[in-house]
Amino acid sequence: MTSTQDLKDPGYLRSFGRRQGKKLSPARERLMAHLLPKISMDCEKPARAHFAANIDALWLEIGFGGGEHLSAQAAAHPNVGIVGCEPFIDGVAKLLSQVQEAGLENVRIHGDDARQIFPTFKTADLDRVFVLFPDPWPKSRHHKRRFIQTNILDDFARMLKDGGELRVASDHMGYIRWTLTHLMRHDEFEWTAETCKDWQTPPQDWISTRYEEKALAKGDKCVYLCFRRKNRS
Fold first, then answer.
1. Which of 8, 34, 128, 145 can bridge 59 by disulfide, Cβ–Cβ 3.0-4.6 Å?
2. Using alpha carbons only, how large is the chain's radius of gyration in Å?
3. Exposed/middle/buried for 206, CB within 10 Å: 0-12, 13-18, 19+?
4. Which residues contact 8 (CB under 8 A, 6 or more apart)?
5. Is 198 in the active site?
6. β-strand partners of 83
7. Is 189 strand, coil or helix?
8. How far apart are CA 100 and CA 98, in angstroms?
9. Catalytic pick from 135, 198, 205, 220?
10. Can you give 50-70 as a three-state secondary structure string?
């Protein structure tokens, strides 16, 4: 399992690029200063301790981008606690705006590398993990920076409940092939697809992301992979 100390090691590779774009508006600066500390993950506390007692499931979204998928899922599932990780400050600020506007109380944010909070999740804590349209790092020499790696899947397998779901989506076919290769050879996961339609179309409760909509508008194809965590017995 990746620890916070591991992330300080010389061999540590970031799976993301820049962390900030344009200067935030004054309103979003205020959200970063006042709302973010209230709903940020504390790496010293168990993940479940961040949520109210009525939360009966935990989901994790890694790289939530503009936050539209996470906030819509949180609104649709008020009894699910959703932890979102996003190192890009602009994305964090956008999600904070959505949380405030919708009055969402079941969202928690980690504005940095997702691996830093993996230890806060106990074994079989998570019901669902989303990795939607991650940076594909297309150049061969950068493939080692792709988020889907064997050690990350080991972490997911530990954190997910038996039958828990891992969703990965991308419009980059090289990344899809990479993901399939790693997941198909991992002993703890099984692909739920039975026909081509299962990976060519999103799941029933899918909520589109802005990035996905842009890709589809350009005529690019998107692939939606759903894997199930096998039973531990």
1. 128
2. 17
3. middle
4. none
5. no
6. 60, 108
7. strand
8. 5
9. 135
10. HCCCCCCEEEEEECCCCCHHH
Question: In terms of Cα–Cα distance, which of 209, 216, 34, 193 is closest to 132?
Answer: 209
Give me the helices (H) in the chain, please.
Answer: 26-34, 36-39, 68-76, 89-102, 150-159, 173-184, 196-200, 210-217
Residues 6+ apart with CB under 8 A from 16: 63, 87, 88, 113, 135
Cβ distance 85 to 112 under 8 Å?
Answer: yes
CA atoms within 13 A on the CB side of 117: 26
Adjacency order of strands within the sheet including 223-229 = 107-110, 80-85, 57-62, 126-132, 160-170, 223-229, 189-191
Per-residue pLDDT of the chain (233 residues; tens, 9 = 90+): 344 444 444 344 554 445 556 788 889 999 999 999 999 999 999 999 999 999 999 999 999 999 999 999 999 999 999 999 999 999 999 999 999 999 999 999 999 999 999 999 999 999 999 999 999 989 999 899 999 999 999 999 999 999 999 999 999 999 999 999 999 999 999 999 999 999 999 998 999 998 899 999 999 999 999 999 999 98
Q: Which CATH number fits domain 22-229: 3.40.1190.20, 3.40.50.150, 2.40.50.140, 3.40.630.10?
A: 3.40.50.150
